[in-house]
Amino acid sequence: MPKRATATTSRTANAANAARLTRAEREDLTREAVDAVLGLRRRGVPEAREVRKRLSARLKGAHPADVIAIGAAIAAAPGMKANRARWVGWELINKHPAALDHLDPTTVETLGAGNSSWDEVDGYGIYIAGAAWLRGIVRDADVRRWAQSGDLWTRRAALVATVVLNTKTHGGTGDTKRTLAIAKALIDDREDMVVKALSWALRCLVNWDRAAVETFLAEHDDRLAARVKRETRTKLRTGKKNAWRDAR
User: Over the stretch 23-33, which tens digit does the pLDDT of each residue have?
Assistant: First the structure.
């Protein structure tokens, strides 16, 4: 059995033996976290992340179901959405390995309900959807279904999920086949947020398979949006998204 599977099985089994929190305890922890984030004088990502880290430390040995419940409640809190901080709840789950392993396809999709901005989708796509796909919790068919959704944010999530497959810091080791399958499914989409995500997906793949990206651009030149071609070719040529950054 692969080492990764062994570690995951052991981690999940150990976490499943943890004592469960009561509903009141989960609600108290959720309320404390939300109040802490909303009460920050400076409500930037670094400051909110410190709140998440403190809660993660308190939940280190918690049952994964409790971590998921608390993370979901934080992400669903109206104040967190209003202040563009839903990512705190998703990151809480992501940074608790046993909780991430404990997710199932239905929960993964439920956690993304209500997304309506690029920053929400990107947090969800990286911390939940992409991480779950990388671990085999959601299937390729699930992500292809997202790519065919009538909701532009769900389509963007499908592309953002590929970023995890191609980013070392998120556990990715490069996945040309799955990345290009989703890219091709959305090649004709002209919603701005989808076009930008397609560019991002292809640029991340450049780090692993330049030749495949170059071939994809050449084969679909007449269908790809101008932004996608420009930014991806600049990445291939300079290693950056925009050439003007070299002059800075």
Answer: 999 999 999 99
Cα separations in angstroms, 87 against 48, 115, 184: 10, 11, 28
* Cα 41 from chain centroid (whole Å): 27
- Return d(Cα 199, Cα 207) in angstroms, integer: 13
pLDDT at 26: 98
DSSP 247: G
CA distances from 43 to 35, 46, 76 (A): 12, 8, 18
Amino acid at 206: V
Supply φ then ψ for residue 82, to 5 degrees: -60, -30
- Please check the confidence at residue 4 and state whether its pLDDT lies above 70: no
| Domains by residue range for the chain, with CATH | 1-102 (no CATH), 114-241 (1.25.10.90)
CA pair distance 242, 114, nearest whole angstrom = 32
Q: What single-letter amino acid sits at 37?
A: V
Collapsing DSSP states into helix, strand and coil, what is residue 22?
Answer: coil
Helical axes 152-165 vs 140-147, angle rounded to 10° = 140
